[in-house]
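Entry for the shared binder. Reason: the reviewer on the internal report wants the predicted structure included alongside the sequence.
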Amino acid sequence: MNIMEFLKKNYKLYLINTVLAVVIYYTSKIYDFTNHATANVHVLATSFDKLVPFIPQFIVIYNSLEPVIYLTLLFFFIFHPRIFTPLSLSFITLFLVSNFVYVVFQTYVPRPQITIGNNYFVNEVVKLYSSDNPYNCFPSLHCGTSALASSVWFVKKKYKLIAYLMSIWAILIILSTQFLKQHVIADIIGAPLAIGIFLVFYKAFNLKNEY
């Protein structure tokens, strides 16, 4: 099938997916409105969290989230519109569920006191802290969205190598949330939550036929 035939066959999906892409963007922005203290703020840090070291070098991994997600979404939007639909619905659902939790069960993560200096990695963490309030922690969207971005590559057998590499990347993203003191261990629940959401849409859209 040439590109024109492919576009003609899938033009309706492209139209639907364009709307869904816009919805992804706007639902992701709900975070900005809920990222503040409410009447009841919970701290989920435990004694185990105190054992996790602060490793500022993980800021490089942490900051890779958005570009990798954008590239993944763009790839499936262009080349696999049938897979993009349930993927986008998974992102939208994750954003809506997470922000609902932020509203009814707001959490706070204590951060280390660090200042701008001569260390590039520390300085980047300071920038992160200044641009992102220490709320909206449970569940972690960094954990959740990275899990989604890696899971979707397993749908197609020919992308299995990429899927495994993306899984390693997602694990590093999850670790970065801990080593940068952006999240506590409990917040990692965002990853299995996202995978569970994707599996629901995977079955609903019968993606096993895409394998």
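Summary line for the report: Strands lie at 41-42, 106-107.
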